[in-house]
């Protein structure tokens, strides 16, 4: 298969958008960590705050890795385009395949981080009584039974 310069270039908008999303998540989390740290110094419910801060710290590391793999994807795509330009197709294809793998790793880490964010919300709400955690089917059944 002949790889054209356009194929790796197609990743550029996707990588740019996903990096913007990762950066926004990072900024939101770092702001939240600062707020929780200040609360931790003042409040008595430290066990809940400690759990939230620990979760956020891990998520920040995940986002850092997501960004690293995203940047690696961009660099590998550029390198692939260079090898296409100088007519080294085999090397260009291997590098482009590697860029796709790094992009997949970045998105997989994003999936893990999203799952952890829901746990953080559950931890935030853990001190409230009467909250139930229904499955999707139970939620839909209750929703339609009311109507």
List its salient traits.
147 residues, mainly alpha, 5 helices, elongated
Please explain how this structure is put together:
This protein is mainly alpha-helical and 147 residues long. The protein has one domain (6-146). Helix content is 84%, strand content 0%. The protein is built from five helices and no strands. The chain has helices spanning 6-9, 11-42, 46-85, 89-124, 136-146. The protein is elongated.
* Low-pLDDT regions: none
Class by alpha and beta content: mainly alpha
Write down the secondary-structure element order. Answer: HHHHH
Reported for the largest beta sheet, the result is: none
- Beta-strand content: under 5%
Q: What gross morphology would you assign?
A: elongated
Radius of gyration, Cα only, in angstroms?
21 Å
Q: How many domains is the backbone divided into?
A: 1
Helicity range: over 70%
Report the end-to-end length measured between terminal Cα atoms. Answer: 57 Å
Please provide the count of β strands. 0
- Per DSSP, the total helix count is 5
Oligomer: single chain
| Overall mean confidence score, pLDDT | 82
């Amino acid at each position: 298969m002949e790889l054209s310069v356009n194929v790796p270039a197609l990743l550029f908008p996707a990588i740019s958008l996903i990096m913007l999303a990762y950066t926004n998540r990072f900024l939101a989390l770092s702001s939240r960590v600062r707020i929780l740290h200040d609360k931790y110094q003042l409040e008595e419910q430290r066990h809940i705050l400690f759990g939230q801060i620990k979760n956020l710290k891990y998520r920040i590391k995940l986002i850092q890795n997501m960004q690293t793999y995203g940047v690696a994807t961009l660099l590998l795509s550029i390198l692939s385009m260079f090898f296409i330009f100088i007519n080294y197709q085999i090397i260009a294809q291997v590098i482009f395949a590697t860029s796709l793998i790094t992009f997949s790793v970045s998105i997989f880490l994003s999936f893990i981080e999203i799952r952890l964010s829901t746990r953080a919300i559950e931890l935030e709400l853990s001190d409230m009584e009467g909250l139930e955690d229904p499955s999707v089917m139970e939620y839909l059944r209750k929703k339609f039974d009311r109507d």
